[in-house]
Design goal:
This protein is an alpha+beta fold. The chain has 2 helices and 4 strands; from the N terminus they run αβαβββ. It has a two-stranded parallel ribbon with strand order 1-2. The mean pLDDT is 81.
């Protein structure tokens, strides 16, 4: 597999408990280990499961938390907005 150096890969689903956090962590760890790619995870889940695992020292990849909230109709761009 060949990925560009600045590739962004996301896992998304509207349903809770679908395995987004688990697949994201496993994929990032596998890429980092097997392909020597420096992976960084962004935990955008309000539950912050990945951030919790990283804080406990369970993950060999860098993790940042940036929660997404639903945009309001008066926002210039529809969809989701980052809360930093």
């Amino acid at each position: 597999m060949h990925l560009p150096m600045n590739a962004i890969i996301s896992a998304g689903n509207l349903k809770g408990g679908a395995g987004k956090s688990t697949i994201s962590v496993n994929f990032a760890c596998a890429l980092q280990e097997k392909h020597s790619v420096d992976c960084r995870l962004i935990d955008a889940n309000r539950q912050r499961n990945v951030m919790s695992w990283a804080t406990k020292g369970y993950l060999p990849v860098s993790v940042t938390s940036a929660t997404l909230l639903e945009a309001t109709p008066d926002n210039r761009y529809p969809g989701m907005i980052w809360i930093t």
